[in-house]
Amino acid sequence: MDYTKLDASLNTVLPGSRQKPGVTIQVFIHTVSPIDQPELAILRRHGIRAERGATVITALLTPDSIADLSDQPWIRSLKLAKQSRPLKP
Amino acid sequence: MKYEKLASPLLTAYEDFRSSGEPALRMRSRAMGMISAEGRPRPARVVVFLHCDEEKDFTALTPQGLQVNQRRGRIRTAILPLESLDALSEDDGVHRIVPARYLKPRMDVALPKMHIPEFRGMSLTGQGVILGVVDTGIDTSHPAFAGRILKIWDQTLSGAGVPEGGYGAELAGSTFAMTRDTHGHGTHVGGIAGGSDPKYGGIAPRADYVVVKTDFMNAHIADGIRYIFRVARELNRPAVVNLSLGGHGDAHDGTDSLSQIIDQEAGAGRIVCCAAGNEGNDNIHAQSIVGGGHMRRMRFLVPDMSVTLAALNGWYPGSATLEVSVRSPGGFVTPYQPVITFGSPVRSYTLPDGGVTIATPGPDPDNGDHNFWIEIKGETDGHPVAGGIWLLRVRNNTTQGAELHVWTLDDEGGRVVFTGTSVKDSVKIGSPGSASSAITVAAYTTKVEWTDVNGADHSVGFELDDITDFSSEGPLRNGARKPDVAAPGAMIASTLSTQSAPTAAWILDVRNRVNAGTSMACPFIAGLTALLLQRDPKLDPTGVKALLSPHSRIPGKASGSFHPKWGFGVIDATNL
After folding, report:
1. Tell me, what's the ipTM?
2. In 3-state terms, what secondary structure has residue B326?
3. In the 8-state DSSP scheme, what is residue B237?
4. What fold, for B285-419?
5. What confidence score (pLDDT) does residue B25 get?
6. How high is the pLDDT of residue B104?
7. Is B224:B170 a contact under the CB 8 Å cutoff?
8. Which pLDDT tens digit goes with each residue over A20-79?
9. Cα separation of B467 and B562, whole Å?
10. Which of the four, B15, B25, B210, B326, has the lowest number of CB atoms within 10 Å?
């Protein structure tokens, strides 16, 4: 696991998530450069659909997948997705 | 007779009719929907709004002369003989009977004030343009959208998903009945942008809709934007996406993931409009210079027994390193935690009055800045966070000062707030309003009084023809100028979702309601952008801003003046 690629909020939720079997985490994956077939193949192994040339990808991942992908040299960062709200005063 | 179900004007009219007969109706016929029987073979009747169970069947009351105009819905219109009021009020499925009133035949105030009718002229209607709405859904049965909703991706339903995300269900035509907007926010937003209605119509009444009913996870909002632009591309049409939503878990500089995706997706014929946010009156942001060798304290208030998770989102330059600690209302403290660059940067601390988790990783790869994230929970899981004044303590052991910005977050939104001198009424536009390419919209007040469906008059304490106080202030944390423009955001009359249940004060009639927020200002500009895209389908975000900025103005200031609350000011479409 390369913790330096995880943002602060993802780092915060990860320890608790690893203790609960079956937990998945919604994340953004940022790549170093536009992805091609080899990277797409790795993403597919983790159940991620993405388009060739993408650099920011949304994905629902297990803690193990997060650990595995953080070690990939072509992945720059993994960031926790967060809840937004409809804006009302 | 269940008198408590009759609105006051109807009650007095009914009693007057019983005691005085037909003349009592004549005097009210100009104000209320009373139809006198004098000189006619039919009995005296009244036109009413019926507040009732959504699926209520009125067939049994037909022999009493009741004619209901809709088969379902929580508020329906009907006409009935006055003598039938007794039986109708006794029905358990009927909750309120309100007389209809005559209204003045005029457009609502927001469009004329911004000179939209003059700009539209005879030709600009939004025809050929896709209006994308990512929100709480849309009431597909509302006549304001009739025949113009092309597709809906309901992310909250079970289904095979779409190419942009393998979840939710894509709906079209006959399957629209599967999706509902029980919140009502999306229906109102959609109506402002492009609803078709003689009184409360939107800006682009002939644009077509592609709607994403989202679960508001920002990753799914990103998927929704990609979906709308892909559908528009397949139809070979320009599109503008409206995002009347947001949060404060980001860096407030446009480098967050959702903002990056917006910047990637936007381009020629693809525009994204975002609401600035409604935290202008909320102390969710604190700012301080932490000098070298100094420490700073930021107080924040957690309300008693009502928040199960409070969080702090702190950002400062990557060139500095700070240590952070938290003090609870009971005075207990965590150790100062430095930036941790080896192994997990997370440490958890159990205080006698709560649990605190702190993450202090190295610089963020997207902006090079440091981010710390602090979560505070109750003594046990699910137990509320201890109420009272908490303290964020920040220590700078280096010689270089650092500008620190911190935002509060909680599970409800806006309940945990800073107090004291670190509070700053600025830098409160979060993602996606912080996206560089987004047209970010502040709210302006064009209306402060209205009469609701019950005939009750209401007024709100906003300054008329001024920026609305709740509208969130810029600039961004990196100094970038936001918001871009201001548009009518209070009080805005537009489409009411019949699947929602707002209190009567917000309801104007069976199809329309009022609401306020930068959520309402954003679709005003999205609709205007649809008109601009009809005129020039290749217009890109820079081009839209280049058109809007010089045609916006802060009252009393020269055109081109910028203010972090107003942006470049309120739009005037006259010569756009």
Report:
1. 0.91
2. strand
3. -
4. Jelly Rolls (2.60.120)
5. 63
6. 38
7. no
8. 888 999 999 999 999 999 999 999 999 999 999 999 999 999 999 999 999 999 999 999
9. 13
10. B15
Q: Which residue has the tokens 């592609």?
A: B210
Chain A: residue whose CA lies nearest to B281: A89
Q: Is the Cβ of B369 closer than 8 Å to some Cβ of chain A?
A: no
Q: How far apart are CA B296 and CA B395, in angstroms?
A: 7
Q: Do A87 and B246 touch (CB under 8 A)?
A: yes
Q: Is A88 part of the contact surface with chain B (CB cutoff 8 Å)?
A: yes
SS3 B307: coil
Per-domain boundaries in chain A: 3-80
Q: Compute and round to an integer the Cα radius of gyration of chain A.
A: 13
- Alpha-carbon distance B193 to B225, whole Å? 17
**How close A34 gets to chain B, by Cα (Å)?**
12
Chain B neighbors of A81, CB-CB under 8 A:
217-220, 257
Task: Give the pair of three-digit tokens for residue B547.
Answer: 């058109």
Backbone φ and ψ for B263, nearest 5 degrees, come out as -65, -35
CATH of B3-99, one of 3.40.50, 1.10.260, 3.30.70, 2.30.30: 3.30.70
Query: What's the fold here for domain B110-279+432-538?
Result: Rossmann fold (3.40.50)
Task: Measure CA of the first residue to CA of the last residue in chain A; give whole Å.
Answer: 42
Nearest to B438 by CA among B467, B408, B474: B474
- Cβ–Cβ below 8 Å for A82 and B359: no
What does the DSSP 8-state code read for residue B385? P
C-alpha distance from residue B311 to each of B21, B98, B306, B354, B415 (Å): 66, 46, 14, 13, 11
- Residue boundaries of the structural domains of chain B: 3-99, 110-279+432-538, 285-419
- Which CATH number is A3-80's, of 3.30.70, 3.30.1490, 3.30.460, 3.30.450? 3.30.70
Question: Any residues with CB less than 8 A from the CB of A13 and at least 6 apart, and which?
Answer: A25, A80
Residue B150: closest CA among B226, B208, B217, B200: B208
In the numeric block, the tokens 């992310």 are attached to: B155
Reading the block at residue B56, the tokens are 């209520």
* B81 burial level (CB within 10 Å; 0-12, 13-18, 19+): middle
Low-confidence ranges of chain B (pLDDT < 50): 30, 103-107
Option in A14, A56, A87 nearest B275 (CB): A87
Q: Which of B346, B356, B381, B522 is the best mutation test for A, with the most CBs of A within 10 A?
A: B346
Which of B250, B260, B361 minimises the CB distance to A56? Answer: B260
B434 inside 8 A of chain A by CB: no
Identify which of B380, B448, B386 has the alpha carbon closest to the alpha carbon of residue B416. B386
